Structure formats: C-alpha cells, structure tokens
TrEMBL record:
It holds the Pfam family MacB_PCD. Residues 293-409, 683-795 form the ABC3 transporter permease C-terminal domain. This is Permease. The keyword Mitochondrion does not apply. It is a multi-pass membrane protein. Residues 20-207, 460-643 form the MacB-like periplasmic core domain.
Amino acid sequence: MLTSYIKIAWRNIIRNKAFSAINILGLALGMGCSLLIFLWIQDELQVDNYHANGPQLYNVMQRQIYDGKVQAGRFTPGILADELKKQFPEVVYAAGYTGWDATLTFAAGDKINKETGHWAGADWFKMFSIPLLAGTPATALNSPIGMAISRKVADFYFGSPAAALGKSIRVDNKQDYQITAVFENLPTMSSDKYDFLINWQDCLNRNPWMKDWGNNGPHTRIMLRPDRNGGPATVATLDAKLKPFLRKYDKNVGTNFDAQLFLQAYPDGYLYSNFKNGQQDGGRIEYVRLFGIVAVFLLLIACINFMNLATARSVKRAREVGVRKVIGAVRSLLAGQFIGEALLFTLLALTLALFLVFLLLPSFNSLTGKHIHLQTTQSSFWLVLVGMALFTGLVAGSYPALFLSSLEPVRVLKGTLKFGAGARLFRQGLVVFQFVLSMLLIVGTIIVYRQVNYVQTTNLGYERENLIYVPVEGELTAQSAYKTFKDELLRQPGIMAVSSMQEAPTNIGSSTGGVSWPGKDPNINIEITHTAVGYDLMKTLKIKLAGRDFSPEFSTDTTNYLINEATARRIGYKAGGSASSLVGQPITMWGKPGKIIGVMEDFHFQSLHIPISPLIMRLSQEPGSQNFLIRTQPGQTKQALASIESLWKQMNPKFPFDYRFADDEYQKLYKSETVVGSLANYFAFLAIFISCLGLLGLSAFTAEQRTKEIGVRKVLGASVSSIFGLLSKDFLKLVLLAIVIATPLAWWAMSQWLQGFAYQVDLSWWIFALAGLLAIGIALLTISFQSVKAALMNPVKSLRSE
C-alpha cells in the first residue's frame, strides 16, 4: 500500500508539472531562508560558548551613578583582578584585559608588520580553552617582557610555532619581548580577536593611570571555584559582596557618586551587551530573536502557500477521493496519502533548498561577516533538517489532507462539490495572515532603510568626508619630529589641515567626574567625556566654535579648555546670554585650574544610539598617544595619500604606513544595523513572493469554483473588466484587512526598534500608506493573471456539462 501511495503521489507531481514546480519552489524558498537563518542563529549562540570552564567564567561589571543617572559596562580599575583573588576565596583565577585593540609594529629579522592584540593577566590561559602549540598556561604570561603570539604570527616571523618559542620580537622599535607561548589561531566563534597577548604588568607600567582605583577602562574577568555540586560558586552571594567593594578603595565613591561591581556570565557578554539604567537590556540577542521569528514566519508563509495551492486543485482531486471512498478507502488512509504527498513535496523542496543554501552561503557570509558552513558531518545538522522537513510537511499537508478526506462521495460524484462558509473563511484567513506578515516586513524594511540612511548621512556637527586618521608612532612621538612632520604635511599638495586627537572623533569614550567651576553644587557629581587634542582641531574637523581654538601663540593653553554646548548647559549660561558668554570663565579639571577659551557647537562624538553628552577637551602634551587627523582637498585624496606615505617613509622608515578613513570608521558603528537592513530587504521580497504564490492559488481556486457563473455572465454581456473587478474585489478586501491588522503591529514593532537610537527618523503616516499601496499593487498584479484568464475563457467551454 505504501508503495502504491508513493507511486500515486509521484504520478500527480509529474502530471501537474506547473503546479508541482510552484509548490516545490515556494517550499524550497521558505525552507532555504529558514535554514540560512537557523545557521546564523546557531553561529551567534555558539560565540564564546566553547570554553571548558565556561559556566565558571564571569565578566566583572561596574555600575556608576552620576547625578542620579546610572550607567553600566565592563570598565573596571586596572588593578582589580589581583585584589579580587586576594579578597575572595570564591575566585580561583582573575585576569585584567585591555578590551581595546592595540595595533603595534612587530619586527623580527628582516620582517616587519603591524599586528593587533591586547594585554592580559597571567591567569588568562588557565581560564580560557585556547590551545597552546608551544609553552604552558602557567608560564605563557608570567613575565613582564613575555608575549604569547598566534600560530599566524609565529608562521610569518619564524616559520613555525616551535621555532618561535624563546625568540624575541621588537615592538614599536622600542622594546624586545620574549615569545613565551604560541596559541592556536582563535576560532571564529570567539568574540575576542587578537594575534598577541602581552603580560598585564607591562600594561600597568605603560599606563600608570591604571594603577589608580579611581580610574576605569580595562576589563576584568574571573573564574569562580566550583561548589560541591560541581557548579559555579553562588553568584548571588559574591554579587552581594562585590556591590560595596570599591568603597574601600576608591576615595571618589561617596554621597554624590557611587560605583558598584557586579557579575555577568562570560558567555552572555556577546549577546547581552546593552545596559539601561544599570540593568541588562538586550543586545545582539534582540536580532537573534527577531530573525528566529522571521524564520518561523517564512516557513509558515510557505506552508500556507502550499495549502492554498493544494486547495485550488481540490476540484480535480475530489472525484479521485469519491471513487476511492466508494471502493472502500477509509478517511484515515486518505488523509495519510495526502500527508504523504505533502512530505514528498517537502523532501523534494528540501533538496532544492539545500542546493540554494550551498549556492548562497558565500554571499550570505560576506553580508553578515560570518564564516558559516554546512555542518554535514554533525548529527545535529541532520536532526534539524529532518525536524524541519517533518514540521513543514505536516503543517503544509494537514489542511488539504483533512479537507479532501472529508468529502462526501455522493456529492462529489454528482458534480455538486461546494464548500461551506467555514472552509472559505479559513482559506481567506490564511491569505490575510500571509499578507499581515508581508506588510510587517515591508514596513520594517522601509523604516530600517530610512534609519540606516539617516545615520549614514546625518550632519554630525563636523565633516567626516575627506578626513584621514594616521597613528602617531615611532620617531614622530618626539615633540620636535611631530611638529616637523605636521609642518611638512601642510606643504604637501592636496592637504588642507592637520591636527591630532587621542581618539577617533566618532568614538570618544573616556569620562570623568573631576571637572568643577564656580557655582557648581559640590553635592552633584557630573560625568563629562574628555579627550586630549592638538592644535587646529576645529579647523581640521570644521566644527563651529564660539571663542578660539588651541594655538601655539598662547603658552597658557596647556591649562585651558574647550567645552561643547552640552557642557555649557550644565555649567549654566549667564542670564540672557548664550554659550559664548562662558568664554574666558574659569574651570578646573583634575585639580588643574584654567579657562574656557572656546565653546564648540555640539557634535556627535559617539554613536547615534547615544545622546550628545557634555565634552571637555584639553591640549595634548604627549604626541605618542595621538592620531593625526588630516583633511584633504575634495577629489585629491589619492594624491594626498601618496604624499603622506612618501613623507612617512622619509621620517619614520621603521614603521609601516597605516591609515584609516573617517567615513569607514563611522560606518563600523552601524554594521549590525546595515546587515539587518540588507537581510530585511531580501526576506521581505521572499515573503511577498511566496505570499503571491498563495494568492495565485486562491485566485485560481475561486476562478475554478465560479467557472459556470462567469460563463453565464459573459453570455449575458458582461465585459472582461467587469468580470476582472468581480473576481478581484474579494481579494482586495482580504489585503485591506491585512493592512488594517498589520499597521498597528508594525508601528509598535518599529517603535520598539527605534528606541535603541537617541536620534531617529519619524514613523510618518506615508510609510504605512506606501507599504499598503505596495501590498495592494502586488496583490492586484498577482490576481490579474487568473482573473483575466477566467474572463477570457470561452463561455461554451465553461457551460458545457459532461
């Protein structure tokens, strides 16, 4: 019997090639997209979850309370790790970690190159499952001049990991470090990215400010002692102990400022990176959930499409069911046959879906920045495929099987097959559901596109076009060489202005509460972002300024300051005055009194996810901690880069020339949003396409049911346009109903997404109107094929009775 069912199913597929092709294509597209999303979600969930000690690893986090506002992050004092090991027996290992990328120049023999890495504590390799190819976890980072490097770095400079161990590498042409370990290249599922690690004590020696309990910046990671049950020590108990911990060490913690430590599971750090009012508030996990829902929706749309197309052919299959019931077939066997046919369709669609995924994976990886591959050697992959096939086949085949197996043979064989209101409403409900999802995706696509375009094109308050970053390093860290290089740059063709800045103007993150001014309430501690800059910054960035910029003509500028309008508002304007009224007023930073020499117009120095906050700038006294900011003439960037590189090789030959474009650095801030926007475009198109296949099926079914009615109307003189309108209006009602249902849902969903941006586009009414018109236009285009076909049919054929 099973063999007979398979033969019947296969014959039906072959006999109805167009119907079968549409069905298989719809299912394949839905399953292929869902599989791609599943692979992406699986990859996201695996990030940082490969360490053997994973359940015992934690990030030490900090909440800071300034002026009634709470912020939280991974920033901690640089000397916290060792103190935690001393004070808490629950902590087995602890290690500091810089958290920010350090790009240093390595030289060994005749090979020289730039490498990116971090500084980390001596316990690092005892905590994390990073295979060592040479050296041991106990000795990898236990020397102030010790360095662990990746296999890639070892192969480049020394030929192999074994040959690298014990050798020396000169860093920034200043200091030699001994290779104490070689580790395997980090896997793609690691959120940490580095090709070298240097002992933590070296970082403290380079940055004395990190030894002060009142300064934060580095990360701290700990590994807890397992309890008797084999799990981690009670985190809640340790959390309670950590909360007041800094009060004993940081003299700044008091009545008007508080700092509290707490723990976050290390594997959660990647997906749950956002904090609001000091509490965990999502992160990349939101996109994981979002695309998980999209995957289910796409699969459901494909299943609904199959149901509608199967229903559209119900009249042709009805007599087959009637004959089979007359000769003794029971309903359960008939339902099983139709479910089997759906599973066969699903199997064929799954084969096509796998082929599509194989073809699309390289482009998908390029778009998402992933390294996903089909894990055909893992049983979990095949279990997922089997589960997806069974789910799709059973859902897609359920309604056609139940519907067709319930037909009464007497009515069917008499040719009086009619469908009740319940069956009609169910099919129409499926179409409405499809178009609700499609409408949601259309609206989401438009709003995501507008928001991404807004952040990419908005006026930041300075000009980022034709702006280049070049790190100050090597010979140029000396004051005299720095000045000579800057002066020579200004003589080069194509270069308009040159300045320097400690951080990129799109990512200034250091902050302090150590700023005061006359009249400031001593009981209020205000957090102010700060950075160090060189001369001519306002000219280079083209920032509007009330007052003047730092200038070598004023020797007192070493104690003077620039502030932005947000800081001016916190200080307070003079009655009836403006921000410029503060120029010349006294201000003190870190106990060093000076004057405000200029008030900058507010500009975005962080992501548009964050409101513009108070900012203060001081004049840099250390060129080595800066980056050159070089503004080129429009259209002459290529010529300017050649001039900069030539001058660099003359004055700094032992360091490779390295540069970045301000535009590129800014785009990196919104990489996730850009990826989401691109994926939304593709998924919206596919959802609409699959939905249209379902609508095509329902329109074909309706036309088939009303064949004789249409024939009678044509005999009585009905025009093609009137018949087209007759068949179309019912479908348009469904689409309009979908628009009414989807509009408030889309408004709510996109409002929630936009809340992640401090600066956002408006949810204008025309967006929903445009999405509705698109849905109506696409529906009409789809319906028109079957409606026109039915309207043009010869009434003689439609009225002929066998």
